[in-house]
Specification:
Number of helices: 14
Largest sheet: 7 strands, parallel
CATH superfamily of the largest domain: Glycogen Phosphorylase B
Strand content: 15-25%
Distance between the termini: 16 Å
Strand order of the largest sheet: 3-2-1-4-5-6-7
Number of domains: 2
Number of strands: 13
Radius of gyration: 22 Å
Structural class: alpha/beta
Helix content: 40-55%
CATH architecture of the largest domain: 3-Layer(aba) Sandwich
Length: about 375
Amino acid sequence: MKSCIVVGTYLSPGQTFVNRHIQHLFGGAACVIADRLTEETPEDGRFFEMSPEDRPATDKLIRPFARGLNHLRHGSSRMPYGSARRGALRFLAQHKPDMILSEFGPQGVAIAPIANAAGIPVFCYFRGSDASSRIRHPHVQRAYKKMMPRLAGVFSVSQFLLDNLASVGVSHPNSVVIPSGVDVRRFVPGEKLPGSCLAVGRFVEKKTPLMTIRAFAEAAQRNPQAQLTMIGDGELYEPAKALVSELGLQDRVLLPGALPHEEVRAHLERTEVFVQHSVTARNGNTEGLPTSIQEAMAAGCVVVSTRHAGIPEAVREGQTGYLVEEHDEAGYTEAVARAVALPPEQKRQMGEEARRIAIADYDNAELLKKLEAEIRRTLGR
């Protein structure tokens, strides 16, 4: 079976789930449609750019009419039109995929009418902001509602996101939860460093990195062995560095910036406690089910996080970690302190249980098979 994967930007190294689908879904027989192709994209004919910078003059002439008509018909004025639409149809006719998988909601809105015109079944995957902050806008809700009948099925990384969509009247009868998953053969427990804590993720509002630093600072007063490494960058990285300096924690809180995935894996391998205080951002943006938490579980870490998005679907409180309410800094501090102070044998047992669940529920090889099976089931029906 041959697939067509639809994304916003390709190649984007951070989108490991997208790259994995392109490389491995149905044996890797895939072509790709992207809003934008980067310079790293191979020039082998398997990739089509939907929104190139150089567009024909005729597209500019019909742009106001096309945008208005698309808004009426599809709920979005950003739909492909003119040369982009014709080019996408030619690309699909040339490559003849058996199905189309849009990796995000907005791209699903754009490709669904084209897929219908080409007579190709189309599916859409929801992963985070596309089913949280975006659906605060009435025009997005309208576009999603118009898209749903055009889809053969919907996938989501968590039940939380499907419930989010349903709360604004967006649903599909063929909806299945399939997390992105992780490579449980690469992310494995190693020799753990006593008192080691780790956070991985962008330094942005929904990750609350400053709260993690403050919570660790207080928890660390009770455990002289405790040390925290926070991997990532973003708009709150410099404020985080300033807070570490202000608290005099330069020797106990390390901020190495963004690191290659292999170095992240090495850190998780030797970390005892993984910390992540995820919250709903002011614009409504949420997690889906953080890959970093799935990786931490596979690496046998005790997880301290929040009752947010799909996280409670993965972390079993008291068995594999501890969860607190969003913005509960006092509770978060206590949970971090409790996890760090656990006896070594209890940490080991909780880490083993976390890895057992990761293998059972978040093995990306098995989840890829499940995705293929669901697509085949739908197409067969």
